[in-house]
Every structure is written in structure tokens, then in C-alpha cells.
Amino acid sequence: MMTPRLQVIADNVLKNESMADIGTDHGYLPVYLMEQGFIPRAVAADINEKPLRKAEQLVARSGYEKQIETRLGSGLSVLSPGEAGTIVMAGMGGYLIRDLLTESPEVAASAKRLVLQPMNNAFIVRHFLEDNGFLIINEDLAKEERRVYEIIVAEKGEMSIENDLDYLIGYEAKRRKHPLLPELIDRKLELENKIIEHTKNKQTEMAREQYQKSTAIAAALMEVKNGCKMQ
Length: 231
Ligand SMILES: C[S@@+](CC[C@H](N)C(=O)[O-])C[C@H]1O[C@@H](n2cnc3c(N)ncnc32)[C@H](O)[C@@H]1O
Description:
Elements: H1 4-11, E1 19-22, H2 28-35, E2 42-46, H3 49-62, E3 68-72, E4 86-92, H4 94-103, H5 105-110, E5 113-118, H6 122-131, E6 134-144, E7 147-156, H7 164-169, H8 181-199, H9 205-230
Helix pairs in contact: 1-2, 4-6, 8-9
Bound molecules: S-adenosylmethionine (SAM).
């Protein structure tokens, strides 16, 4: 079943190119892309057997067993360089996505496009992309139930992210006009305010630094949020 989040991810997958869905779980994405005729073949991979079995069953029901190969394994280790035009990594933490890309640099660099949807710590993913020769070509947001998700689309290239806020809420200036941006900012503000509350009376240097950093981030987020309201 395609959800709004998976739909945004699907919309950013390159047409007529093979794709790999790393951490596929249910396998909805590759099956949908095949059914729509958007891709010629796919690899649906997962580190855990149980989710991979779910994907296998869905692939079998869809009749695309020849075109969608399921593979058991961690991250990009299941792929050879150049095998996937688009690599999708969705529904995992930002640190895990960063680590899996770092562990298989040749495979990551050989993809024409990465579509990444970190569940948290998206700033780590943006730092990784900037430091490893990727250019963010699109960023989008999707809402499911009460949660807003960040989708980051990157290709090989160079970029220089100018300020901390761009790591936190998105590299592209146009993203700042996204209708879901105020909700994303609210969520990030909530997290920063928790840190502020937690560190405000602590005396260690680390806590003081964190307090100052989070206070500055919260102020910057408020500024963007107020700017969004005025548009
Ligand atoms: C929350 S599900 C996301 C499923 C799907 N990608 C989506 O966005 O709806 C995360 C999946 O990632 C898988 N996973 C976790 N660590 C992984 C790794 N190192 N390599 C491959 N898959 C992994 C889990 O087994 C799980 O099925």
C-alpha cells in the first residue's frame, strides 16, 4: 500500500532505470514502481529475514518475480557497483543511512540517484552528502498521520551548505515554502526545547555548549517559522 511518504519517494525515483530498495520491509515501493511501468527491474533488500519474506510474498503476488530480486543482507553490500540507477533508503535513522553509505562507497557513488528518507537526524545525512561528493537536487516533505517526513534526493556533484539551519531543515531555499515546513519546524523545535530544558541548569562545559547551541537553533527555527507564517 502506497502511503503519502512512499509516494513522494516513488515520485523521485529515476524512470527507466533499475532501482534498489534497501530496507524494503514490505516491498511496496519496488512493486508499485514495476506496476506503474516506471522501472525495468529492482532489487528489494533487507537485513532481516522476516521483512524480506513479506517482500517476497508481495513480489510473488504481483507476478514480477523475474524483475524484482529479493536479497538478504545489510545496506549496500547486497549490490554491485552500477547495479542500481536509483538507490532508496527509507524509514531508517539518519546515522544508519550515513553508515551504510559510508560502508559501500563504490556502490553509493555508482548510483545515478539516491533517495533518502531518514526517520531522524536528517542533518547527518546532509553532512554526509556534502562531504562525499553529492549534490542535493530535491528535498520534499510528506505527512502521514501526525508526522512529517523528510525526503532527500541527491546525485553526484558538489554543494556547499551555508548554515546550520540548512543542515537541519533542508538545503534548498525553495523548501522553505513547503506547506508542511511549519510542522517540520514545530517537531524540530520540540526536540531542541527538550535539550534546552535538560541542559539549562547543568554546569558541565558540554552541557553549557549544548544549551547555547540548542538555544541558537531554536531561535533560528522560530525565525523561519515566523517567516513562513508571513508568506
Ligand atoms: C521501518 S522499515 C522501512 C521500510 C520501508 N523502507 C519504508 O520506508 O516503508 C526499516 C527496514 O529496514 C531494515 N533494515 C534495518 N537495518 C538494515 C540494514 N543495515 N540493511 C538493510 N535493511 C535494514 C529493517 O529490517 C526494516 O525492514
